[in-house]
Amino acid sequence: MNTNSHHEELQRLEQEASSRAGAVQSAEELRRVESSLLGKDSPFGGLLKHLKSLPPEQRGAFGQAVNGAKARIKALLEERLAALESAAARTEDDAARAFDPTLPGAQRPLGSVHPVTAVQWEIERIFVRLGFTIEAGPEMESEHYNFEALNIPADHPARDMQDTFWLKNGKVLRTHTSPVQVRAMHKFGAPLRTLVPGRCFRYETIDASHENTFHQVEGLMIDRDISIANLIALAKLLLSEVMHREVELRIRPGYFPFVEPGIEIDMNCQICGGKGCPTCKHSGWVEILPCGMVHPNVLRAGRIDPEAWTGFAFGLGLTRLAMMKYGIRDIRVLNAGDLRPLVGARRLTGPIIKG
Ligand code: PHE
């Protein structure tokens, strides 16, 4: 090796020192780098041997180059050590400052169930007591169960009553829980008492009282002599128990292809107590329980003989009922990520709502 290539070696060593020192994260690691760069077995050993073999007139210049490189590497390592030490001191300082034993502990709020779930559970308990089973059905439903089996053929204008999300696979997001009526008939036959809480979807423009995703509870009771009087009695019991007070009902005719006769049961507005407010559109009443006597065609679709059996069905607006019960005026908070209005609504108003 000639002297030129030894100068190159020196340069390379300096570069190596700078990149290795920059990469270390602790003083200890840095010491290891230092001993491999400058220690006994380091490349500097070989360079010093070379120095001895040089003619005396060249030794001075080469010796200076070697010492210069060594000194610069040393300085660089020292600088890095100082930087590491001050960073470590800063972290310690921060840690000492971050822990203040005089501050109150972090609050961990207790979890609570969603208002819709709370009301759903309450309703389930009431109906289990009355001998109903609790069923579920698919949210992605076939056209058959969502419409046809419910006496809504493809060309029926009632298809437009519910704006539907049609899926590419030809199925729909169920627009109501009613499809589970026929599913339950297939599963159990008659007599039958079943309750189906579930999520439904409609292609709606969202505002304070409309959501594209909401909850209903379907009720279905089939037996030998079921009449509309059973239905109305049950509706009164259900709504009064959920609201923990006697509610007033208003009964109107209603039209749904899967019931005959169809009725709408309204409840006096629990937000304003019936005086009129934006929630009840100033009428004092809210539609809460569309229902009716199961249409013979639906019983037939469920393979139940309409000559031998009668039944009623209802489709409770669970989301709306939860809003009434907890005084939630804007439906959008129910599906939003912000939990504060939900917890607040339940804490402040409890089961009985004042205007
Ligand atoms: N499925 C109907 C709806 O969502 C409600 C309903 C259910 C009406 C059962 C009558 C009987 O609009």
Indicate the topology:
Elements: H1 3-23, H2 27-38, H3 43-53, H4 56-98, H5 115-129, E1 133-134, E2 140-141, H6 143-146, E3 172-173, H7 179-188, E4 192-201, E5 213-223, H8 228-243, E6 249-254, E7 259-268, E8 285-294, H9 296-301, E9 310-317, H10 318-326, H11 332-335, H12 340-349
Parallel strand pairs: 1-4
Antiparallel strand pairs: 2-3, 4-5, 5-9, 6-7, 7-8, 8-9
Helix pairs in contact: 1-2, 1-4, 2-4, 3-4, 5-10
The structure holds phenylalanine.
Phenylalanine binds next to strand 7, strand 8 and strand 9.
Can you give a write-up of this model?
Helix 1 (3-23) packs antiparallel against helix 2 (27-38), helix 2 packs antiparallel against helix 4 and helix 5 crosses helix 10 (318-326). The radius of gyration is 39 Å and the shape is elongated. The chain has helices at residues 3-23, 27-38, 43-53, 56-98, 115-129, 143-146, 179-188, 228-243, 296-301, 318-326, 332-335, 340-349, and strands at residues 133-134, 140-141, 172-173, 192-201, 213-223, 249-254, 259-268, 285-294, 310-317. The N and C termini lie far apart (97 Å). The chain has a seven-stranded mixed beta sheet, with helices on both faces. Strand 6 (249-254) and strand 7 form a beta hairpin. The relative contact order is 0.10. The chain is an alpha+beta fold and 355 residues long. It folds into two domains: 3-98; 115-346, 2-Layer Sandwich (BirA Bifunctional Protein, domain 2), CATH 3.30.930. The site of phenylalanine has 11 residues, from strand 7, strand 8 and strand 9.
